[in-house]
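Contributing: when you submit paired examples, paste them exactly as shown. First protein:
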Amino acid sequence: MVHTALYLQALHPEHSFTFLPVGQRIKSCEKDFSPLRAELAKAELILFSYPVYTFIAPYQLHRLFELIKADGVDLSGKFASQITTSKHFYDVTAHRYVEENCFDLGMGVVRGLSADMDDLLTEKGRREAEHFFDQLIFSCEHGLFVTPPAQPPHREKTVYQPCLPSAGKSGEKDVVIVTNYAPEDENLQNMIADFRAALPFESRVVNLREFPFDGGCLGCFGCAVTGKCVYKDGFDAFLRNTIQTADAFVYAFTISDHYTHSSFKCFDDRQFCNGHRTVTHGTPIAYLISGDYRYESNLRMIVEGRSEVGGNYLVGVATDEADTAAQIQTLADGLVLALEKKLSRPANFYGVGGMKIFRDLIYVMRGLMKADHKFYKTHGIYDFPQKQRKRILQMQLVGALIAIPSVQKKMKGQMNSYIIGPYEKVVEQAGGKQG
């Protein structure tokens, strides 16, 4: 994405480009924001360039938005857009996340460029980048902006008080609650306390703010072969031994900046030590979320998409928007049901589409991503349609038969019967089981 911006700079010397590598220097920005503040204040257009990491922008960009908002630098009236590179795995949620934060800052947002990682090496990709920049300048000059989402109405923030009775505890299941609450997140802490009281299993709380992260994912692919992260902070062992051993995961956070505090995104990104392997497939997931969740459509898509791609049964989400105690009790009961019945559901478009992207990516890059390739082979994820030879031959035979006029005449009006016949047999067998 940086080279796409450099390419556009080379084509447009009439514009002045300033590059700020905040991803590499986020720690120094935390210590002294003044150099970045000065550059942002001078800019007319801010072009966020980043790789898409785990459904959204990288941790470093999340942290940047926190720093911008905390500093109070005035960006209202400036223009904003973005350039991303990815394999188009949930690039839409990443773009919407950046757009929403730019809207918070009062900026005029122009639709960004979502490029494939190799697009700049092709004539088509370079042409699309050029078209993007032409449209970007036109949009800035004529006010052709992305429409801001609806804002939640003002509501009085009340402190939720724990009120659910404590259920008897069983050590049969291990439930881990992964959170990032700060001392001031009173609602979230009380929601967690009530959930733990209502849950009839023992549970553990892991607060990500207490883990000594050395930094966010570097995208270095050092873990692609070994599964070990280049950082020496022990996160990979912590993830595998403290969190992924659980029978169920509960994620608990307070909404901020249209996701949650950047510590959670650091946790998300650093899980790339697992590569693209769905190592927790089948483990149920539940969420406790404090904030205006119903007005965060992009966040809702991320929550659902994560469980679908990971093959995790999403039990539900309890929030502090209304009827919080009832929501928490229902969520606890639902998690018990999911664990006892080992519930599963077929993947929807979010899951099927996401895994097809990963399937094709890993197959092409199997020489590099050896651990992913081995996992995909072992678990039958390479389900390419050309492998379904029997099904393909059946369809060719059926197609040849119904092309014959005499067969067409015989089957006229009976096609539905042929199609639904096998399903009717399943229903009859189910009725027999009940008898």
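Second protein:
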Amino acid sequence: MGAFHAYDIRGVWGRDFDGQTAYKVGYFIPGLLGTDKVLVGRDCRLSSDEIHDNLLRGICDAGADVYDIGLSSTPMVYFATAFYGFKASVQITASHNSREYNGMKVSRENALPVGLETGLGQILEWIQTDRPTPLAAKRGEVHSKEIMADYLEFMSKFKKDLSSLKIAFDLSNGMANLFAKQVFGDAPTYLFDTLDGSFPNHDPNPLVAANVEPLKKAVRELGCDVGVIYDGDADRVMFVDDKARFVSPDLVIALMASYFCDERGEKSPRVLQEIRSSKAVGEYLASYGAEMHTWRVGRAFAAPKLREIDGLWGGELAGHYYFKDFFYSDSGLLASMIVLGIVAGLKKQGRTLSEKMDELTRYKNSGEINFRLEDKAGAMKAVCDLFSSEQKPLTVMDFDGFRLEFEDWWFNIRPSNTEPYLRFICEAQSEEKLAQKVSEAQKLLETRFDAKRV
């Protein structure tokens, strides 16, 4: 059962999980979440129909009814779960992973995520212990449910006049194709604008630099003001500026103050960032009197935390952005609407997105570096001990790995929740200090833990 992770169920279809797993997940969800109605959506992956059929059979055999919204982005499922008051939902997707992967994202009432610590672990235990799955006295039924009209009406209040902008979109052959042209019209340039679960043009992961190259090329050649790229299930979005440079997703958290604070007039907002975010985010938002909260990586942690602090918005380095206005959930579409509105406002002022991002970029950043090694806990402790012995840290965060902050630099080291990697990220005021600290960490990991940088 290698498909059960901290945030969701995900793995290579036919290897890490199969139809029987999907059936049992469906069977156990109604009892786990105390409901007789389960909302279900699916992405366009080649295996999604088979998973869908097994999942629905399990839900119905347990005596619950299915409300099937068909092909959908993951945020559409979050919307429908909260908007219509469902107590349970499942989106069949593997998000940004390549074509051989698939999985399921489970949500409870108010679109709160169900992770390993909040329910998926219980389902895994029931599967592993062969908990019986007797047919209910009255088998559930499947109902088709149309949500697109309500979804687009809900999102329309965030739409701005973008007619002054030249925009290029990369829809990644994924679920953004369901709504992009309806929302943004025919004027933009669209790349890979057909639904195709084989992802023939590139993997639907905007964090891999090669996957963003077609968008960068379009921005350069067409002279666009901005480029937008969604991942496979459209819960994540990333941007390319007018100079065809990739915009670091954590800095977009800071950029969004232009909408929430400057435009809407929100005072002293509560904002959520994750443990890998640049120090520049908090420093910039401090000028708005923002109350910054730092927390763990992943929707299973971020969405409940934003609700707990009653935050207005938040984000992650992976391109997830969470909004109180969207049921404290993440939405690639809403994030792109907000950012494009900001870019349109900048253009009216005679400014560009690249100029604004240069203003927000205050540090030199390594980006996340992955090391493959066995003793993750020992390696994390060794790196922390190394740097703490050189200089006493000003701040220590000990959740989701460790983040140690010093006067002119910081680092975070954490184990991946979904891959066999230890992840290291470092930021400093100078290129020299950054290179020095990355080199020290890499040398320690390679010599003491036989780590391989990947």
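If you have annotations for the second protein, write them as plain sentences, like these:
The chain is about 35% helix and 20% strand.
Residues 219 and 244 are 6 Å apart (CA to CA).
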